Amino acid sequence: MRGFSIDSLKLGPMENFIYLIHDHDSQRTAVVDPAWEPQRIVERARELGVTITDILLTHSHHDHINGIEAVLDQYDAPIHLLKEEARFWGADIGRPVLHHGGDTLMLGSTPIRILHTPGHTPGSACFHVGDRLIAGDTLFVYGCGRCDLRGGDPNQMFDTLRKLRADLPPDTVILPGHDYAVSPVSSLAEQEQGNPFMLIDDRQDFIEYRMHLHDRCRHEPYGPEDRDALIRMIHSGRCN
Ligand SMILES: [Fe+2]
Fold it and tell me: What pTM, to 2 d.p., does this model score?
């Protein structure tokens, strides 16, 4: 077993991260959320000397999928996503491979565990590979995905983030879907210490902050927050 590597590209006006998971045994390579500049994804695959064999989607928002067609022009690759997301999306994407939360997709010798993490969209997924979590728009470094778009639900996001904390080891490396923060990657332990969405323990406080205060009061790049200051802000309804 020769392991795997994960490569990232930052592409497009919303600073999306696109990831390539490369299984060294089989040379199979999956691209996660191909978007914006697909020719650069293809170039990177060529530089690495690999063929893209699979397309994985964390969710169906335009900024994560708008490079699928161009990748498919170059490679034959099945599209993998959660059944809930395919239903929510409703697009005709040929014959996708539909998964359920908890499934493991084998990329050659590399297991990719598919976690169902609703909140940003009903069928959002995170991909757990080794000690890495490709988190899409579920968990950002010091942030989380919006819950006010169609299909979003802050109640579900609250539960999803609690479950990730409970289920994953603290040294898990978080690979987010956008570069919104002071650093492009972080550990789950670091997020437990400073991510506001992990610091707020009360469900109603969480919903209030996610839906009403966060976008008004917080600016990029996101950095660590202080729990007491957050709670003061939520209870006063005013930005600190
Ligand atoms: Fe999104």
Answer: 0.98
